[in-house]
Automatic annotation (TrEMBL):
It comes from the Bacteria. The keyword RNA-binding does not apply. Gene3D superfamilies: 3.10.20.30, Nucleotide-binding domain of ferredoxin-NADP reductase (FNR) module, Translation factors. The keyword Flavoprotein applies. InterPro entries: 2Fe-2S_ferredoxin-like_sf, 2Fe-2S_ferredoxin-type, 2Fe2S_fd_BS, Beta-grasp_dom_sf, FAD-bd_FR_type, FNR_nucleotide-bd, MRET, Riboflavin_synthase-like_b-brl. Residues 1-103 form the FAD-binding FR-type domain. CDD domains: fer2 (cd00207), PDR_like (cd06185). The gene is vanB. It holds the Pfam family Fer2. This is Vanillate O-demethylase oxidoreductase. Signal peptide: none annotated. Keywords: 2Fe-2S, Flavoprotein, Iron, Iron-sulfur, Metal-binding, Methyltransferase, Oxidoreductase, Transferase. Its cofactor is FAD.
């Protein structure tokens, strides 16, 4: 996937752990690819580590993009390095990809963010406001001090009256707040959530029965935990007729690459959606954290998913 050199032009220390970076193209040209809210990009930082970050600025900004980086205690080098970046430094950025787009047929949109999960939902709030859509943004965080974008959301955005902060509510208290939100929803409402996995499960468990599971849209930051002890070999056939044997312990993506087949990839953890491909025959064993239930009827992530059948026929995108 093509990467473009961007320059850091502004850094905001949102909290002691979270900073936002505003970036422009190194050649100062307008953005070549416009994106829809909910999109994310690959970012190659100063240490060469590649990570995915949601775009959290206004999608109609033609010249810059905004990302937020949380410094993780167990970081493998990515977030720590990004917290050492300074104004004027350069980062390589991929074209945006979107797995969390706004549903255009909804009568109302409810955005439910947990912690750093505010990032893609903030961009969606900008887009929905521009469209004149009915929406509200519920923001859960451990405290006001640990929440990002507080000043922006309270004082500097036109849709401040649509923001519903829930700061300091313990995880055990979230279902009660969510049940209050559920009282105002209809089957035509769409819900979008991003945050820790446990938080998003609570959102789905409480709001899903009201709006329908296919109206709850989820953005994951973490790979799914999968038991691979029972994996068995399988055969993969491309729509071109080429066949490959995939042994247990090796991914479909890795086997294709070993045989000279070019496949887009990025995280290789089933999060980013880069390697998602079509399924023409067979039944996948889905292990990703990027596809919706509807997507899984005809697609799979080649980096982590396997098969429930002995054979798959796939179409590379």
């Amino acid at each position: 996937m093509t990467n473009v050199l961007f320059r850091v032009v502004e850094i905001t220390e949102e909290t002691p752990e979270i900073r936002t970076l505003r970036l422009v193209r190194q050649d100062d040209e307008p953005l070549r690819v416009r994106y829809r809210a909910g999109a994310h990009v690959d970012v190659i930082g100063p240490t060469g580590v590649l990570r995915q970050y949601s775009l959290c600025g206004a999608p109609d900004d033609p010249r810059s993009i905004l990302i937020a980086v949380k410094r993780e205690p167990a970081s493998r080098g990515g977030s720590v390095a990004m917290h050492q970046v300074s104004v004027g430094d350069h980062l390589k950025i991929s074209e945006p990809r979107n797995l969390l787009a706004v549903a255009e047929d909804a009568d109302r949109h409810v955005l439910v963010a947990g912690g750093i999960g505010i990032t893609p939902l903030l961009s969606m709030a900008y887009e929905l406001y521009t469209w004149g859509s009915e929406f509200e943004l519920h923001y859960f965080a451990r405290s006001r001090e640990t929440a990002a974008f507080v000043e922006l959301l309270e004082e500097r955005v036109e849709f401040a009256d649509r923001i519903r902060p829930h700061f300091g509510v313990p995880r055990a208290g979230h279902p009660a707040v969510l049940r209050t939100i559920a009282e105002e929803l209809t089957p035509s409402t769409h819900v979008y959530t991003c945050g820790p996995d446990g938080f998003m499960r609570q959102v789905g468990d409480v709001l899903g029965p009201v709006v329908g599971a296919d109206h709850v849209h989820v953005e994951h930051f973490e790979a799914a935990e999968v038991d691979t002890s029972g994996d068995r070999p399988l055969t993969v056939e491309l729509d071109t007729g080429e066949e490959f044997e995939v042994p247990a312990g090796k991914s479909i993506l890795a086997v294709l690459e070993d045989n000279g087949i070019e496949v887009f990839k990025s995280c290789e953890e089933g999060i980013c959606g880069s390697c998602v491909s079509g399924v023409l025959e067979g039944t996948p064993d889905h292990r990703d954290n990027c596809l919706t239930a509807a997507d899984r009827e005809s697609q799979m992530a080649l980096c982590v998913s396997r098969a429930l059948t002995d054979r798959l026929v796939i179409e590379l995108y």
